[in-house]
Amino acid sequence: MKICLCLSLVIALLCGSVSPWVTPRPFARSATVTQLLEGQAGYVITDSWAAAYVDRAASLGFVPPTFTDLTLPITRAEFTDLAVRLYENLTGTEITGQVSFNDTNDLNVQKMGYLGVVFGVGGGYFNPYGIITREQAAVMLVRLFDIFTPAELTYNLD
Fold this sequence. Notes:
Blueprint: H1 2-15, E1 31-35, E2 43-47, H2 51-59, H3 76-91, H4 107-115, H5 134-147
Antiparallel strand pairs: 1-2
Helix pairs in contact: 3-4, 3-5
């Protein structure tokens, strides 16, 4: 249960945006800039309310070094990077299989294809630069959790 909550928070932080059913209203945005990972170059920009959670996700190895502004939308390929990091960090094993797509050579996309977490958009294509929808993210997360064993789901993130 603890892992589900942590994963939900990480994904919500990295994919969050104003929901379409919420009436937009002006607000003051307060951005926080923090160093991405100790010992690595790069910085992450987050809204101030999310900074502590993003720092925690980064310390667990869930935030890719290429993610520099987490207030931006996330692509389908970037989401697979998060999924691969989650799987490999929690299982302690590297995904070695790959499934090819016609429009990308992204290793993370290929790894998630191998695990059956992603199948693409049809015709052998993945659409790696498309912005992921909440529906697609939910499907990928459920497929990812379906492949974990009960022992892996007891991983302690503390």
